[in-house]
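ok trying again, last paste got cut off:
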Amino acid sequence: MKERREEGILPRIGKAHARDERTADHFSDGFRITKNLPEDQNQSCDKRQHEITYFIKFDIINILNTQKTYSFVLILWLAGFLVLTLGLKRQISEIFHNQDAIESLQTSLDKGAEESLRLSSETRAKARELETLLGLVNLLPQDKGFLRTQKVISDEVSTLRRKMSRWVGKDKVYILVDTKANKLYLKQGLNLLLDADCSVGRGGRLTDKVTGRTWEFVTPLGEFNVQRKIENPVWTKPDWAFVESKEPIPPPDDPSRKVEGELGAFLLSLGDGYLIHGTKNEAALGTAVSHGCVRLGADNLKKVYESVPVGTKVYIY
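nice, full thing came through this time. structure:
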């Protein structure tokens, strides 16, 4: 019983060993079978070899096709990215170009707005002049002699304006100060650039009882020139300011004479201590309250300061 069992096992071991040898020979010789096998087994091994070879070739072809596909997709992606980059660059260039155009248009609009404001100011001035003339005519509408007189006056005014235009020049800027109306006018030729309330000298005298010196607080009349222009001026208090406040007069170089902010942000000197400057009391503009200088509000003073150069004529009447 035991011997038959062993005999039954040995043939199976031999068959397995032979199969392993064939398999080893199969794989060691590049899928070729070198041992002598039965013909049907050789055909079966050849078929398997062809199938394996086919699948290996198929896999290699798939891998190569996949790599070609990835390369093609990568090239397409790079081409698309380049196209998008060029398009973005063009759009950015157009944006900068449009920005420059907008800035240029804005500058033109600002200039147009300034010109409109100037024309509007001139129109209002002309309208006030016309309203005044119409008011004079309506005083005595039935008096023909009065109307003739008004026409004569109007003709004389026109003649004087033509003469004045030739005298001051069409493009020259100058300043007029009306001490009766407490008005300052900035003009260029016959065109009115600014009509501002101001304060001129209040009149009257101040006498120092100790020294007997006298000061008269009036604004002088006549023709002057802008001799100096100063920003953020510091007022040096004169002797009369201490006499007026009943304080002892300090030495000329005493620090107590220096006062900041009293004259406003700008100053135009007319000579002999007479100035066009600002004021802390803008509510009093339009009345004669100064000690002889011409006071202006902050905004109007800035415009006058920026509009007139040194040497500009100032006519005070």
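cool. Confidence is low (pLDDT under 50) at residues 1-37. The chain has two domains: 20-116, 171-316.
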